[in-house]
Design goal:
With about 375 residues, this protein is of the alpha+beta class. It has 19 helices and 4 strands. Belongs to the PrpD family.
Length: about 375
């Protein structure tokens, strides 16, 4: 469920989501063990985030180049490390847990290419794999240590040598990657957010209006252009919710017409779209901008458009909203939480949502083995 709305945290420089694989695994293991306090939950999540994030930072190409979804392909390893730490495993146990998890490392881009709901499932499979691997390691099973740079490790087998371990550990010991996480303001693929930021900026400045638009072009990395802008006619006519969330032309057109940022409620059935959105999307195209590197797809974007009276406009962003460079405020994050809670299959009552939120905000202060129960109890009561 954590990945169902494509509204999860992102490590932009690694093109993956850490929380969606690590946090569900930690919560499940903590509930099963019944022994974890708040500090232990936090330490385990930080550990898993660090492992998963740094594994992803070593990859030198975008997910579309290899077809692997890094969140799930690497997520099982990060989840295994987090759970093994939570369960009290020593260094050997954590190593074994990660090696065992490598045996189940999987997750592919075909799920999003075809716009299927299996896209949502893959991080959950990674989380489950991490829990199993940690439990097996705690029971004494061993796993390979050289699962990154070994003869058949990730670097050679999964990424065909396009992997730089030195990049992965460059800031190790001086920077925690959990502090580098970006939080999404819009429920869609993170690599589209920069374009949406720029469109909103132009709309708010009075420079962009749907009724006066002649054409619009969105520039991104080669991978972003290929994966989120092509084939153009298919991206202009998405056939499912997943297609919508991975279409730069569609989402840019939607925001242009709405004149505001996207909410969860906006991501409804594609066939109910406003005809004005359909008209505007036919004016939008994407291209590969040479100023944006292969690993900068979730950090840089370009917007250019021409109006009916011949005026032209171009702007570029080097940091997407929600990133550490342009962070969302606590108040905005809380509003996002409440919005998501209201959209649950069984919507949380405001007081239940507030109870969950308050437990999370004071998690480090929860003593004894009650942390997980305090977080989950309001969810069960509804």
């Amino acid at each position: 469920m954590a990945h169902a709305l494509d509204f999860d945290d992102t490590l932009d420089e690694a093109a993956l989501h850490t929380g969606v694989a690590v946090i569900p695994a930690v919560l499940a293991a903590a509930e099963a063990s019944g022994t974890a306090n708040g500090e232990q939950l936090i330490e385990s999540i930080v550990c898993g985030t660090e492992i998963l994030g740094r594994l992803g930072m070593g990859v030198l190409n975008s997910p579309g180049d290899w077809g692997w979804v890094y969140t799930s392909a690497l997520g099982s390893i990060g989840a295994a490390a987090a759970v093994a730490k939570l369960l009290g495993g020593d260094e050997d146990v954590i190593w074994n847990a990660m090696g065992i998890a490598y045996s189940e490392s999987a997750g592919n881009c075909q799920t999003s290419t075809e716009g299927t709901l299996a896209k949502r499932l893959q991080p959950g499979l990674a989380a489950g794999s991490g829990v199993r691997a940690a439990e097996l390691a705690m029971a004494g099973l061993t796993g390979p240590r050289e699962f990154v740079n070994g003869k058949y490790g990730l670097a050679s087998l999964y990424f065909r040598g396009e992997y730089d371990s030195s990049r992965a550990v460059r800031t190790l010991g001086s920077e925690w990657l959990i502090d580098r996480l970006a939080f999404k303001p819009y429920p869609c693929c993170r690599a589209i957010h920069g374009a949406l930021d720029l469109v909103l900026e132009a709309v708010n400045a009075g420079k962009l209006r749907p009724e006066t638009l002649r054409s619009m072009r969105i520039g991104g990395s080669a991978g972003v252009h290929k994966d989120l802008g092509l084939p153009l006619e298919q991206k202009r006519r998405p056939a499912s919710l997943v297609d919508c969330q991975f279409s730069t032309p569609w989402l840019v057109a939607l925001v242009t017409v709405l004149g505001r940022g996207l909410k969860v409620q906006d991501m409804g059935p594609f066939h109910e779209a406003d005809p004005e959105v359909t008209r505007v999307v036919d004016l939008v195209s994407t291209y590969s901008d040479p100023r944006i590197g292969v690993l900068e797809g979730a950090q840089k974007a370009v917007l250019s458009f021409e109006t009916l009276d011949g005026e032209t406009y171009e702007t570029m962003t080097n940091a997407f909203y929600g990133s550490p460079e342009d962070p969302m405020s606590d108040a905005t994050l809380i509003a996002k939480f409440d919005d998501c809670a209201s959209m649950a299959e069984t919507p949380l009552r405001p007081e239940a949502a507030a109870a969950v939120r308050n437990s999370i905000m004071k998690l480090e202060d929860i003593q004894g083995a009650t942390a997980i129960r305090e977080i989950l109890a309001p969810l069960r009561r509804g």
